[in-house]
Amino acid sequence: xxxxxxxxxxxxxxxxxxxxxxxxxxxxxxxxxxxxxxxxxxxxxxxxxxxxxxxxxxxxxxxxxxxxxxxxxxxxxxxxxxxxxxxxxxxxxxxxxxxxxxxxxxxxxxxxxxxxxxxxxxxxxxxxxxxxxxxxxxxxxxxxxxxxxxxxxxxxxxxxxxxxxxxxxxxxxxxxxxxxxxxxxxxxxxxxxxxxxxxxxxxxxxxxxxxxxxxxxxxxxxxxxxxxxxxxxxxxxxxxxxxxxxxxxxxxxxxxxxxxxxxxxxxxxxxxxxxxxxxxxxxxxxxxxxxxxxxxxxxxxxxxxxxxxxxxxxxxxxxxxxxxxxxxxxx
Length: 331
Known about the structure:
Layout: E1 3-8, E2 32-37, H1 45-49, E3 61-63, E4 69-75, E5 78-87, E6 90-96, H2 100-105, H3 107-110, H4 125-133, H5 146-154, H6 160-174, E7 176-177, E8 186-187, H7 191-196, H8 199-204, H9 209-220, H10 222-226, H11 233-240, H12 248-258, H13 272-281, H14 288-295, H15 302-311
Antiparallel strand pairs: 1-2, 2-6, 3-4, 4-5, 5-6, 7-8
């Protein structure tokens, strides 16, 4: 295994973008840091990092035509941009901003170094086939709680399209341009900025008072919530669920991304029980209880099993009406 972690001189941006950063330094002239890492396992960047993307227009996440992934994050050391690419089995990473060193130090963890799929034993033909076709799937571990918690709260009980739109508007409207050469990346707001967003801006983004209030409560105790990234998943979920408005669905969706929680299966989802039931027992009317029964043989890896099932694309014909769009003016 080899690793390189060193400063890199300024480089020309891929395309446009002369927005300045504090101190008057042009974004494209900011020096970057680089690191290479040889993972001791097959790695598919798209599959591994995909859960961190909140829709095709996510302003914090971009995928380039060459397969590289760009992410903008608010790290404990400040805003940072990370670009990750695979070259002949080697991970090549480059980072910009105050959070560059933190992002590069966390790179192996982000890409599943701590994930342990060795004890995962498929018990169904469909799951075995899906795992065999995707040897490069690792469970991501971002180590950053708020950046996964807030979009998960936005996704509560509305369509994903509405949630993605809200995330885009709030990050672009109240976040900041990401450091580095990418012209379209934004870093999400810091906790204080989330707390200062006026009510009409939440409404303009289609976010009702209940979800906005939950995010505000989380922002006020952001430091304590970020500690959950270092906990075991059950303890992390318990910490998150101390916040009114954060329940099992939201905590599971969060720790899957922040803690690489292989067993944190999502309950309370409108469609997931039917998908799991259809795939494993030809029962598209399965509820949470039946889903958990079907996934019981995968205890310790129930989220991994559910993820592999979802990746097959095998879903039952939709009979329930699609969740209607929400007009918060009527709430």
